[in-house]
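hey so u asked for the seq, here:
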Amino acid sequence: MFGSIFLVVIGLAVLVVASDRVVVSAVRISLRLGISAVLIGALIVGLGTSIPELLVSSIAAADGRLDLAAANVVGSNAANVSLVLGAAAVLSPVAVSKKLLRREAALMVVAVAALGIVVSDGAIGRPEALGLLGGLVVALALLIFWARGNPPEIEDDDNVTTRVWVEFALGAIGITATVIGATILLDGALDIGERLEWSATFLGLLLGVGTSLPELATALAAARHKESDLIIGNVIGSNIFNSLAVAGAAGVVGPGMLKDFDGIAVVGMLVAVAFAGVAMVTGRRISRIEGSLLVVLFVVLGVVMV
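ran it, structure tokens below
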């Protein structure tokens, strides 16, 4: 048991550090190549911090644990819009633009709803999984199209080319380390879950929270710098990627029935998204009080789903 707990701790530590390195490299590359700020938040950072969810869920599905993969995705989505967004708002109120609500936030709601519909029948078939991946292509195209109008200035530096290739190399190392961390985390968590006879839903939710730590770290760092767009973009991009890419990849790798997956987890995810949506719309900002309520909601959902 203690050995498995050690594996979980080590796996999470590797995931957080390695994923952070991937995100840092991606942001630096995007800035030097002149990619827009919106794309950095919603696409580069948001999707980059979802690498742990993709790896953990894909590995679980390949091992015949599609229910665990689904619970991981649902748990991560719920954690993103409650714990991550709430904690960031408690540190510094998060402003939300009308344009962001109308486009990127609406796209996230559609992606999460699509995930809910797919798992509502207690299974993920390969055609449904391919449909989610197709939705990802559309979502990415929209994010890029919306972001095209406001690119940042490219840094004027004689060593830009050299530094970009250095960041590519560091990013590749980070991805490799993330794969190793995800494998270690999954092995340890599965052993603990079997010993304590935890349900796949609860175990997956715990993994979802664990794999959301990169998002949390990024959001808190952005909150300290009062970068509201980066916080919102991180959450939106992560949930879009989780719902479409992670669930889609898991369904392609190991389609089948969700044997030990409780539908209450999906309800909890949808409630969290709805609550966060209301908080964004009212006053077009998430206040410290609303952030505190989101964190409380996260705790309540965890208690209900045990």
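The chain has a mean pLDDT of 81. The chain has twelve helices and four strands.
lmk if thats what u needed
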